[in-house]
Amino acid sequence: xxxxxxxxxxxxxxxxxxxxxxxxxxxxxxxxxxxxxxxxxxxxxxxxxxxxxxxxxxxxxxxxxxxxxxxxxxxxxxxxxxxxxxxxxxxxxxxxxxxxxxxxxxxxxxxxxxxxxxxxxxxxxxxx
Length: 128
Fold this sequence. Notes:
The protein is an alpha+beta fold. It has 3 helices and 8 strands. It is globular and about 45 Å long.
């Protein structure tokens, strides 16, 4: 498993920031998988988060574990292929209780950077 995914799984809930016009919008998320060598997240194509990423793909994701936090940045790329949706549902079966197949909107980040910070240590860039 990648170091980034491992960190996010330990965090449990992490936070996704997107851009809405000139304003930042943050919301808790908790779905992340490894698929085709990339780190995938998901949302619903009915949510503002989805529309925001289509208009401006710049996002940041952050979570905290044991006094350390991760900051992930990149550009969201929607992958609403049947295969990506099925990978999300297969890996995270609880998503079936939240989203229909039609509304599931998996995405990954290009130009992704993941750095772990703490108050007592130097930042560590994660290479997945």
